[in-house]
Amino acid sequence: MANGLSPLRRNDQLQAAAMYIAQDNASRNLLSHTDALGRTMGSRFRDFGYNYSIAAENLAAGYQTPASVLDGWMNSSGHRDNILRDGLCEIGAGYVYASNTTYKSFWSQAFGCRFNTYPVVINGEAAATTSPLVQLYIYGSGWAEQMRLSNDGVTWTEWMPYASTMNWTIPSGQGMRTVFVEVRRGATVYQSSDTIELVATST
User: Fold this and answer.
1) Which alpha helices (H) appear in the chain, and where do they start and end?
2) CB within 8 A of 189, min separation 6: which ones?
3) Ranges of the chain with pLDDT below 50
4) Are 114 and 50 in contact (CB under 8 A)?
């Protein structure tokens, strides 16, 4: 885990919010955390259905590549603090190219973590793997007492002591694979899942 931080799970609602603000900024040819509807980050995230316990947002414009915009954020103390902020667990990202604007390229990052949400992350949120043996990061440290896992959401392992990381085997053969995890404390149980594509090894 880089900088001692947990890997972030991609979230569709944060992704939509990030794309929206990038498109909004491009349409107005400016860089602002307040969108055309007058919403700041917090109200915008909630309007996209993301009811967060903690949240942050990075915006940028004018950078030509993902590497250059990330360098720009990491060399800006406020943006760097957001990227390295402890307690975040989910992320969305947006990019828009608008040739008729001053900046051309508009970028966004949306970060958050929701109440009572404990994501599982496969291989650091990689899109694909060539091996059915994957590494899981399971949120729940400091809360969860036990966990169990499944490859289909029906057949589960026995409950076992909670651990934040473990190796897991997904079904062999090419295609999308989903790993389900339940964590519990007493009688309270929360479920999460993540997907990854199992692909053939290139020759």
Assistant:
1) 12-28, 41-47, 66-74, 77-83
2) 182, 183
3) none
4) yes
